[in-house]
Amino acid sequence: MVRERNHPRNPYTPSRPPSGTDNFANLLRDPALVIGDVIHRELVERGHHDVRPALLAVAAHIARDGSRITELAERTQLTKATVVRTVDELERLGYAERVPDPADGRAKLVRPTARAVAVQAEARAIIADLREAWAAAMEPGELDQLEVLLRRLRSVLWP
Known about the structure:
Layout: H1 24-45, H2 53-59, H3 69-76, H4 80-92, E1 96-101, E2 104-112, H5 114-137, H6 142-157
Antiparallel strand pairs: 1-2
Helix pairs in contact: 1-5, 2-4, 3-4
């Protein structure tokens, strides 16, 4: 479990209240926003001061074997120009590299570097700790049940 490190509050406490009502879309979105916020804060605590939420929002969608800019723009729901600028910064910081696309010699793929893979491993550990904290705050088995239902929903959406 991630320990409190010079935080006036528990590191899993959301930095802002949820927006809007508790409708279905917000109930799915708001925990994801908290996860992103916690990952960012914890990575900064661990010395990754150059990682900003905007960079994480794009980097999280880069496939291990590479992704095209257009694919990243679709997945992040950002403009191609915004993704290009973000990838430029990820590349400058050493988190991404552009490599030729083996399927199309004219195209480039964005691929995570070893540095990015190491940060991804830290982010997965932060998520595991966060899940453990959320499970402890709920009734036994409730978070497990939620995961089962979300996996079922995912399989319905992407059979």
